[in-house]
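Quick one: structure tokens for this chain, please?
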Amino acid sequence: MKIFVISPGMYTYGAMVIAGIVRDAGYEVTLTRTLEAPPGDTVFLSLYSTQNLMDERVRSFISEYRRTGGRVYVGGPVSAVPEMVLGELAPDAVICGEGEAGAQALLRDGISAAVPGIAFTGPDGIVFSGPAPPCPVSRPLPFIPSDIAMQDVRGASAYIETQRGCIGACTFCQVPRFFGRDIRSRPLDEILAEVQAFKDAGATRLSVSGGTGSLYGYADGKLNDEAFADLLREMAEIMGPKNVSSPDIRVDCISDTVLDAIRDYTIGWVFFGLESGSDRVLRLMGKGATAAQAGEAIDACRTHGLHVAGSFIVGYPTETAAEYEETKEFIAQYALDDVFISIAEPIPGTPLADLALRTPDADNPAFAAHTGEYKSLHLTEAEARSFDLLMHADMFKPGLHVVTDQIFNAYLAEVRKDGETVRKATDLLRRYA
């Protein structure tokens, strides 16, 4: 049997893991980023974005492939709400949550309620076989495509998984709901064998993934910063220190050892999910840290000679204009080296999705019309805040940043696209509420 693992547009790490497990089970596997496969075979389709559920290209591929006698199983983060996947895309089955065991069971036993962790449409409606247990984090090498060197995901050829789970409870994030809040760290020797395999395949830079990189080795409620430092040092010995990054860190998961290791063994950047300068909004987001704690973490990074980037989310349902101004003040005070801004997108299966459904459009910045400074641009309030914050952040980044007409128009196009994405995601939630 030939198996095709398709990850549209990008080789996701999850797709590479599934392809590796299927390969080691004895099947002939092809991993591709394009929606193409010969008729009559089996396709595992890895989908990582809610937007995939509304993509006509994905829908058409699944419909046509099944019509020709092939089977399509969908997995990935979209599986958090399987009824949505079945309703929008109509695959043969959805592999819910961690997919390693479900993928093997489907190939071995076919679609059945006896296969844990899958959902499918039966004669009497949707059948969910029940949650699958967490998968072991010790596993074979992933299937690494021969053109991995051509991929660029935030500056890295790939993000590799060092652990699963997150101790956080951010209301906009799937990670603790998908993988749980217990930290399961992979054996160091297996990670390093994987790093070597990626390098041998041509990968030029690897980034540590897993939600918060410094949680590697976390146990009994404590950071194991020495384990994290060992991880980065060993990775750097294989890839070179300027070819390793560990960007995603919680502001409450750092120490001198963690920051020294990032400085000594990586590209020297830390990426914090800062999200807001308002403590009320941070509580609403479930961040577990205050704006003052975030500021202290930024100062600590700079003491250790690190560059600091941060992400911010604007337009959270019920976010007020005054709370948005607190975010602007935070950016002005800390002058980050780089800033990433997005409008709050309600990802299915998260508390933010529930909040978006409960919030009237008039109180949701993603839908309410902006009536202030940018009124003539016909933006929503969330789009206006995102646009304003992009230009505001440029004023405080190191070096000279001039907002030319070209940059102005690029920012405007970016926020309009972001706003449309959020509204479509919210409308999708409403259809299944």
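Residues 270-433 form a domain with the Transcription Regulator spoIIAA fold (CATH 3.30.750.200).
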